Amino acid sequence: MTLNEYIKKYNGVGIDTDGYYGFQCMDNMHQYCKDVLGLDYSVLAQSDAKSVYMNFPNVPGATNFTQIKNTTTAVPQVGDLMFWGYAPSGHVAIFVEGDVNTFTSFDQNFPTGSKCHLQEHTYKNVLGWLKPIKSPTQDTTDSLEEEKDALEKVVKDLKRELKSLKNDVKDRDTAIEVLNGSLEEKNVHIKELEDSLTKAVKMAEDSNTDYQELETQLIETNNRLNKQNGVIERITAENTLLHTANVNLASANVKKLDEYDVSELVKEVLSRIFKK
To answer: Most buried by CB count within 10 Å: which residue of 62, 103, 113, 222?
Structure first.
């Protein structure tokens, strides 16, 4: 098991390897030595973490580690066991990454009562660290191969997606060209419609002018017709009066004829005719 696998397995989990005192930092250290370093639980067995570092190299399995003191320039490596000198029992955790100022380690019971987790630290109260002779990074061939296969799969998937994206881009470019052509045709059609509309507006304006002229002429014609209708009305009235006068005259003439002897009248007319 690699350190990364160990962290994934136990992150958020409480470890109690000896069955005493609950989840202690020493339990995390012993489980790490067994799972990642392939050592026995009895390695580095002491009453507390501080004693492991202070009694080194006179602790079980010491030959599997190198002791390194904390200095202002020293930086641990991945998988090193970090030891603090807190009174009375100290603390131990597994170094993950960091520099000369701060680092991240995989801790348990820091803060007190916490389960396994990644924890940020400074080097305050750090006594030093034990570096495994068998570095956990040296026994990761299988894991690296798996990671390599996974990365190759990711690369293949990315290449496939890239090819698909290129095809999509090509299809979109083609579609854009078609749309641009269609847009040009529509622009031409729009220009033609605009020209037709301009002509229609001009014709409408001309028709409106003609309509206004016709309306003026119609008004003038109506005025003339109204005048003529007045004349006609007067003539009609005069004709009515004249007809009435003629009727009255005819009646008078009839009455007058009734006063004469018709035969005498006829004779008189005939005599006048023949005299001419």
So the answer is: 103
For tokens 């803060």, the residue is: 111
DSSP H helices, the chain, are: 3-10, 25-35, 49-54, 141-259, 262-275
pLDDT of residue 153: 81
- The closest of 78, 72, 79, 77 to 126, measured between CA atoms, is 72
Residues 201 and 115: their CA atoms lie apart, in Å, by 85
Sheet order of strands, 81-84 included: 65-69, 126-132, 81-84, 91-98, 102-107, 117-122
Comparing CA positions, the residue from 77, 92, 80, 79 lying closest to residue 125 is 92
Structure-token match 């990761």, residue found? 140
Which position has the token pair 């005939």?
270
Residue whose token pair is 């109260």: 125
